[in-house]
Write a structure and sequence with these properties.
By secondary structure, the chain is mainly alpha-helical. It contains seven helices and two strands, in the order αααββαααα. β1 and β2 form a beta hairpin.
């Protein structure tokens, strides 16, 4: 079996970075003793669990620190591994899964996506999250991770499309022959 060709090395780098980040997020809860992190509920954009996170070893501390700043980390909207709350909520975890999958696809297959498909990929997450924000509706973690994964996939495919277009625009092109030169070539041949 022949492996598919890599589309571009920057795309491979994005895929490897997304996979590495996903692996860190998935394993961070196993890098600390079981039952150490049980409720990180906080506010997005605020480092509000510093006392708990400060006690962790450097690698899980870094992952949980990013989660504390970038995610609400509401315990009921998060998964628990090793009796520890994960550093990101279920929807963010889905986004990371979708980004890794999307960059994985575009690492080996050149894929162009229409911007309308990006909107279609983001719509389920926006609808689910928006209803939750504006009404009494409470989503499930399964629905959160699925809508996050769809949005992450659509986002990765769109970003890859933009990188492919940018790469085409920056690629050196052969000089075009002058109009007069084309006519001379035909007469000479």
């Amino acid at each position: 079996m022949r492996l598919p060709r890599i589309t571009t090395y920057p795309m491979l780098a994005l895929f490897l970075a997304a996979c590495a980040w996903l692996a860190l997020v998935l394993t961070a809860a196993y890098m600390v003793p079981a039952g150490t992190i049980t409720d990180l509920t906080g506010t997005v954009g605020t480092y509000d669990n510093k006392e708990l996170i400060r006690e962790l070893s450097p690698l899980p501390r870094a992952v949980y620190w990013v989660g504390d700043i970038e995610c609400h980390q509401i315990a009921e909207r998060s998964f628990f591994l090793n009796d520890n709350q994960m550093p990101f909520c279920a929807r963010d975890l889905g986004l990371f899964v979708g980004l890794a999958a999307g960059f994985g696809i575009t690492t080996f297959y050149r894929y162009k996506i229409h911007p309308a498909l990006l909107v279609a990929g983001l719509a389920p997450m926006a609808l689910d999250g928006g209803l939750q924000l504006l009404t009494d509706y409470e989503s499930t973690n399964l629905l959160r991770i699925v809508t996050g994964a769809v949005a992450g996939l659509a986002t990765a495919l769109f970003l890859a499309h933009m990188l492919f277009v940018l790469g085409e625009d920056m690629a050196p092109r052969a000089p075009r022959p002058e109009a007069g030169e084309q006519g001379q070539d035909r007469r000479e041949g």
